[in-house]
Amino acid sequence: MIAGIETGGTKFFCAVAESADPTTFIDRVRIPTTAPQETLGAVREFLEKHFSEVAPEAIGVASFGPIDTNPASPTYGYITATPKPGWSHTDLRALVPLLGFDSPIAFISDVSGSLLGERTSGAAVGMNDIAYATVGTGIGVGVLVGGSLVTGHGTPELGHILVRRHPKDTFEGICPFHGDCLEGLACGPAIKARWGHSAQGEEVEIIGYYVAQLLLTIILAVAPARIVIGGGVMKTPGLMDSAKRQLSELIAGYLGGDHPATRSADTYITAPQLGDFSGLTGSLVLANSLLR
Amino acid sequence: MIAGIETGGTKFFCAVAESADPTTFIDRVRIPTTAPQETLGAVREFLEKHFSEVAPEAIGVASFGPIDTNPASPTYGYITATPKPGWSHTDLRALVPLLGFDSPIAFISDVSGSLLGERTSGAAVGMNDIAYATVGTGIGVGVLVGGSLVTGHGTPELGHILVRRHPKDTFEGICPFHGDCLEGLACGPAIKARWGHSAQGEEVEIIGYYVAQLLLTIILAVAPARIVIGGGVMKTPGLMDSAKRQLSELIAGYLGGDHPATRSADTYITAPQLGDFSGLTGSLVLANSLLR
To answer: Which end of chain B has the smaller Cβ count within 10 Å, N or C?
Structure first.
């Protein structure tokens, strides 16, 4: 049996599964994200319940971040300088010896986890060149190229691209680093700060313009065979359609009329299929990959 | 012996090399790009001189484009809809049977060729996560992730990203598709059309702002361990420094103080080392890879 953990800013999910099928949970639990000691204590309790006699064969962790995913780093498995209060410099790796295990453990970012989950049993099964984007509390993108996650020096941080401003948008943006980068203008809290509610009517066009620029940049940078895009903001009625239409206008025929972004955008750019469990599934897939 | 061909809008290079060391030319020739029949005739002549008795073990082609690099496509090896007059729908693959050979042949984009060349014996030797950018007559980027060239659906087309306008720049741009995309504002012909000469003085800051946005997008999208950036425009005095400084301002500390883009930009972002022969070397590396 293997274990998977998805850590998020508001909740953790933990699961155990059989390594023969990491996409099917034997048991899972949802734990609210409070203070590290409390939250990690609940994780420990859940794991101890299932692994009282035998250690997990492997543990995979898909984490909010920034998470140090470089196995050669002394802070591998640490959440580093996160804006989430109390969680900076939290050592997630320490969980294993605390449990009395010496199981192998691996760490990836939350979006990379969701990407692996959707690739294994969701919206992009078996595909080797895909991007997974989330537009929610933050904006993040995981990228798989030729079957490898992009991790050359760190991971993709496409939430912070500089976007061209919509002419009707004068909001100054909320990114503490960049003000009006993509995340500063289009994440959930930016929408809330600007209008006090989810985007509606003409506001959807404005956010759609920014999402379209994210999609455009992904296509131009990594030429994926499919883009899966989720997150709370993407549930806004009309937003996906608006983004696809404006993407097509931005491409302006450049990539050829038969590029799937124009010809078959419905399957090329698609919502996740695993609901809340893309990342958790991915953490189990990651754990399973340690066994091979 | 193997053969390599780099096709460009103004010149072709052809070379023969020993497969034991594809980075050292036995012979090479420079052919001006005129009409397809004439230019390809000269290529044929060069190859016939060296391969009158025995066929090349393999041929690699790094080509201006768009070039169809999908082996499953019926137009594999064709230059497709290029703005270069007379060259649209030119079948480069037909060269092999014309020569009476049945040698294996492979095609990649010019920037991917330069990337492979610089990776084999230039500015990024042995590195698996790199980007090669050229800012010249056009703007193009090749990307290697985990040792694989990005070719999920087509190749990267980062020359056409939407950039934020420099506040002092009112030029409308020259891209026939997008007007003021990156290439429309910052390629050599755009600079010439705007000012009648290479960028100088304050103009360097304007072009530097656009190059900085290209570097930023590359870093945020594919997190390379090194970026090699060349092309005629990058020879403008002061441009590389201006771009690196403005890149650092755009990152604004987000990636952490120890990110090489800020801490060691001199080695992280670097000029090519193979001069005119990055692409030609890459075409031979490609040919050599067919033998394995």
So the answer is: C
